[in-house]
Structures are given as C-alpha cells and as structure tokens.
Amino acid sequence: MGMGMSNGMQSGSRTADPSTADVIGILDSIDVPVVMVGRNCTVSHFNRVAAETLGVAASDVGQPSGNLQALAGVPEIGQICMQVMTDELPSRLELRNGDRWFLVRIAPFTGNGSEVRGAVLTFTNITAFRASLGQAIYEREFTKTILNAVIDPLVVLDEGLRIQTANRAFFEWFGASRDRAQGLTISHLGDDEWKALDLWPSLQATLSPNSNFQTLELEANFPNAGRRTVLLDARPLVRDGHALLLVSFRDISKHTQIEQALRENEARFRKLYESMDELHDAAQREIKSRERTEQILREVDRRKDEFLATLAHELRNPLAPIRQASAISNAAAATAEQKRWSHDVIERQVHHMALLLDDLLDISRVTRGMLKLRPQMTDLTSIIATASETARPLIEAKRHALKIEVPDGAARFAADPLRLAQVLSNLLTNAAKYTDPGGEIRLRATCSADTVTFSITDNGIGIPPESLKEVFAMFSQVKSAQDRSEGGLGIGLALAKGLVRLHRGTLEASSEGTGRGSEFVVKLPRSMSSGTLEAPTPAASASSMRRRILIADDNRDAADSLAILLQMDGHEVTVVHDGRQAVATIDSFRPEIALLDIGTPELDGYEVARQVRQGPLGTSITLIAMTGWGQASDKARAAAAGFNRHLTKPIEPSALTGMLRSGF
Length: 664
Description:
44% of the residues lie in helices and 22% in strands. The chain is α+β, with helices and mostly antiparallel strands. The protein has five domains: 129 residues, 2-Layer Sandwich (Beta-Lactamase); 106 residues, Beta-Lactamase (2-Layer Sandwich), CATH 3.30.450.20; 48 residues; 154 residues, Heat Shock Protein 90 (2-Layer Sandwich), CATH 3.30.565; 115 residues, Response regulator (Rossmann fold). The strands form five sheets. The chain has a five-stranded antiparallel β-sheet, sandwiched between helices. A five-stranded antiparallel β-sheet has the order 7-6-10-9-8, with helices on both faces. Strands 12-14-15-17-16 form a five-stranded mixed β-sheet. A hairpin with a 5-residue loop joins β6 and β7.
C-alpha cells in the first residue's frame, strides 16, 4: 500500500521526493482520514486511514477532489476548497458516506514562503455522536409532544415556586407566553383573586421530604379560560439534585355543571312524579314516536342499501358487453360486420349508462328543488310520439302490443315537452318491465277544457294493495316484482311523480292486485299561469363550419377519441393534457374554440379560463367547460371563470358536433 501510495502521490515519478516521503509519514501517523489537494483542487496526498475508511486509491491522485467517491455527495467541494485557499480561512461541513457521518474540516496549508499551496481535508467520524444526539432530541421532543397533548394544564416549579417549564394548555389558560412566564412565581399570574389564594404555603410545604399535597378543589378566574372549577394536585420531583414540583390543574367545571343540572333535574322529576299518570302517558307517546322514527330510519337504511347494491349491479351490467364488444372490435379476426355490431353494442350500453346517470341527477334536482321547467305550448301527439319512441326498444324486445288512443284534433296545452315525455316514457318502460312477454300496454290521452289526462294500463304482474302507497317512494321496487325486474334503480316512478308535481299535476297508481295489471294516471292543468312560456327551440343549422379547436384533458383516451370525432367532422384539432400546456398552446395555436376539462393537472380549467380571458385572445375565443360536475353551482362557477358553455360528461358527440355546426 505504501509503494502504491508513493507512486500515486508523485504523479508517476520513479524517484520518491524526500519531502513527499516526510509528508506520507506524517499523514500515516494520523488516525483520522486526511486528504490533501493542491492549488488546482486536485488530490495530491492521502493517508492510510483515508484509503481504508473512505476507499481513496492511488488512482485518485491528480484527479479533481470532486471525483472522490467519499465526496460524491458534495459536488461543490472544489469551489469550497478554492474559497478556503483564497480567503485563507478554514471551512467545515457534514457529509454522509454510506451509513456513516463525517465532519469534514477544510483548512489551507502554506509552504516555506507563507504562500498557500493547497488545502487539507480531515474526516472525523461523528456517526455515534449524531445517533446519541438524535436520540436525545427525539426523547425530548417525544416527552414535549406528550405533555402538550395533555388537555389539562401542567407546570413545573422550582423551590421558589418559579415557573421552569409548562405545557401548552398552561400557557393558553393563563394567557402568557413561554418566554414571559419563565422564572415568574406562579402566584404572580392571574388576577387579584388568584394572587390572594392561601394555596402557596401548601405548595411550598410539598417540596419538603416526606410531605404530601392534599388534592384540593378551587374556583378561580383564568385569563384565557374564564371562570373554572379545578382539582389542583402537586407532586415533588428531583432533577440534577434540585427539588422541583409538578402541579396539575384538572378542569371539573363541566362535571360541576352536570352535577348542578342533575340536582335541578331531580327537582323537576320530583314534581313530575306527583303527576305520574301524565308522565306515563308522555313516556308512552315518546316511546311510540321513537319506535316509528326508528322504523322509518331502518326502512330508509334498507332502501339505501338496496339502492346502492342495485346501482352497482346496474352500472356493472353494461360493462360486460362493452368490454366484450371492445375485444371483438380489436380482434384481428373480426369481420367488418362484427366490428360494426360491436360498435353498436358499445353505443347502446353507453347510452344506457348515461340514462341511469341522468335519472340520478334529475331525481337529485327534483328533491332539492333545483330542477326548473321550461313550459311552452305543445300538443298530445308530439309528447306521446317522443315518449313511445324512447320506450319502444324495450316494448318491442318483450313483444308487447302498444295501443295508443289520442282524441282527434291537435289538442294543445302548456307543459315542458321534454320533462312530460320523460314522465310518460318512464311509465311505459315500467309497464313493459313488469308485464310478461307478449302482453298489452295501452296509453290513452284526453283533454278537457281545464285538464289533460294520460292513462297507462297494462296486463302485467300488478301491485299488491299494501304496496300501492310505497310505489312512488325513492328507491322503491315492489317486493313481489324484484325477482322479475329487468334492471333499474327504483327511482323512475319517484322521478315521474316529482316531475308531474312540478307541473302542478297528480300521478296516481291503481291495481286490482297481484297478476291483474296496473294503471297509472297523470292529470295536468291545461294552462300554467306561473312563468313565461318559452318559444320552441329552433332546429340547428346543418351548415358545417371548419373550426380551429383545442382540447385539454388529462384523460388521454377521452381527449384523443374526441379529437378524432371532431377531425372526422372537418375541424382542425390540437390536443394537450395539462393546464399549462393549454395556456401556452392557446397563445400559439390561437384556436377559435377551446374544450377544457376542469380537472387538468398543473392548472385547473377555471384558472386556464381566467388566464386566457386576460390574454391576447380576450373574449374572442369560445371556452367550453367539460366536467363530470353538472350542478347549477358548478355551471355558475364555470361562467364566473369565463366559460361560454358548460358540458357535463359524458359528452354526447352528436350534440357537440351539432353545436359546432350551428355556430352556437
């Protein structure tokens, strides 16, 4: 090792320099690792301990100090050495090498002419010191944390009853900071009543050997805690040969208040006892009321559990055909016809899931009074046509005969055509589900001077008399029909009832019993006096316009598939996946329309909209929010951020393309 070091330190010279040999001898006599660097901060010498402890080798001589494996964690070591040699002032740093810690001292060394020739680096192992210091700090902080977690005030006093330390609760009660209270006698805190207590001699006596403090109850004003009743206790301690006193304050104010309340209640009950009959009757009424409430709560809880199970079932059901159809579509052996079929399956199942979510949102809006009708003049024929078209796939799948009876003439009346058609389609779908295949469903509509009436009858499984009152309840499905149900969340009839009520109408159900069919009757006033009737929405223009569109969505599949659909419609589309990219791309791409997901990383959609509105495009760009949140408050927040439109996911592609073609 000595020869290797000698050759390395002489940079390849065959003849050892006597002065170098002296340096080697001195360094090897030092039992800590030492490394010397020259003016150019390259390694010139090292000792045996440095080789054994830090792995310094002869090949490191002449290399920059930063290349030493031991100094890999200090990339700026060369700069530090240069600064030490320039300022001729030593420096130090702590360094971790594997599982060991070293204190590295860097000092300049001079030659014969007092000229700085380099720097000396010594490595002192401080692993054990750090470990013991860390344990001590940990134990101190652990103890402090425990004391501060105690909700009762605790204070440690010295022989003169001066405050040495206390927990957080103590300082909060007395309204004093740790620095201000340090060294004060405890009798000087608080108000005059506190200072006048005869408590202090008892505390002082507790410091004497073989003396015990008798726990006492006292009531006093505390600056930040107010008037409190406390149990005060004291225990002697010894630290570093000095007698100390631990004083604790246990707040029993609530306990005292409870005892007072119990005494008052006892007096009240004594009076009630004198009129036992009245008390007994009241107790019986209370018991019955609680039993009814508990029964209602159990029923609500049962329906909630059934609904959650049904919801999970209904949302999982479409996933199986979607997954299988997707596999068929991606299969290399699939024919064009099979791929078209798989696409149809996916579209139908996605539409089914969207309807489930729409029903959930609608029933939530109806329940909270957030759903607003848009009444306009309409007629029986168009309402029934829309409703029957929605329910027709299920009716035809069950091979039912649907008979519609509408009076001659265009009977017109005021209603929200979309919501009324939703009511009738829900009733038709319900009839189709609970009628055996090949059954008959009849829809009759009549219109008098004041009332519009719809009747949906079927020859299905019927409704038991005891279930007629529950049929419109939220998440309700008639027990005898559950095994025959073909899906649904049990909210269709509740939603229909709510929508009819918004029209100021009634919805009633009747049945002659199990197996004898059902009838649902909707009655609506022919005119709606409140609100202004809206004109029918004009059809969107079919003219196509090529637009520059930006899509920002961190769901790459959703963004890319939407981009393909828009490109197929002739639009120029760019896709990004976070908010910062969206802002930058809008500035460079300058799109006419930006479709922004609200939940993008980096910047959310709201912040992107605000920055874009303040940028060069200002209000010239159309911003459309895309989000799974569709409440009125969400739309209001989007509008406040600068969005022109708000679309709730999943976005209907045909609706979006129609919007773009119509020019909004």
